[in-house]
Amino acid sequence: MKGGGLSAAAEFDEFYRATAQRVVHLVYASTGDLELARDSTQEAYARAWQRWARVRDSDEPLAWVRTVARRIAISTWRKDTNRARVLERTGPTSEPAAPGDDRMTVVSALRRLGPEVRETIALHYLADLSIDEIARQTGSPPGTVKARLHRGRHQLATILAPKEAHDD
Q1: CATH fold for domain 8-90
Q2: C or N: which end of the chain has fewer Cβ atoms within 10 Å?
Q3: Quick count: other Cβ atoms within 10 Å of Cβ 61?
Q4: pTM for this model (two decimals)
């Protein structure tokens, strides 16, 4: 499919307009799922555009797109099927409970900390990481991690102290 003087974008647009519906119909016929066919086709054309110089010079650009679209659809179908099987075995997940007042208070307090201190507190108390692990993950010296934990605990205690304690 040589361009004959068209820009690559114009050439691709022409190719897309002339062939996209056929690819959607093929994938739809293969899967029985029109939404999946449309999504897979769009993704295949997006990938073709990314490699357009190579795809357009292939013997059959349309065959390339059809193959990619079918593979995307099959992959998506497999993921969906596996997800459905897990759901059958385990049952539906329960809806998470709405956060309580205590949780909202803590989250609000965490938001008032600086980003490095907040991250350190979260990694230590929520992800249960050691000081050395936090130091490795953040690229900070262990002493800095300890200082952030100390500062964060102090700031949180101040923020979360009962209102009467602030009024004294």
Answers
A1: Rna Polymerase Sigma Factor; Chain: A (1.10.1740)
A2: C
A3: 18
A4: 0.51
Q: Return phi, psi of residue 10, to 5°.
A: -65, -40
Range(s) within the chain of domains with CATH label 1.10.10.10: 101-161
Tokens standing for residue 10: 């114009």
Q: Where in the chain is the domain with CATH 1.10.1740?
A: 8-90
CATH C-level class of 101-161: mainly alpha
The pLDDT tens digits of the residues spanning 31-59 come to: 888 999 999 999 999 999 999 999 999 99
**Buried b vs exposed e over 122-134: b needs ≥16 C-beta within 10 Å?**
ebbeeeebebeeb
CA-to-CA dists, residue 98 to 60, 103, 125, 146, angstroms: 54, 10, 21, 33
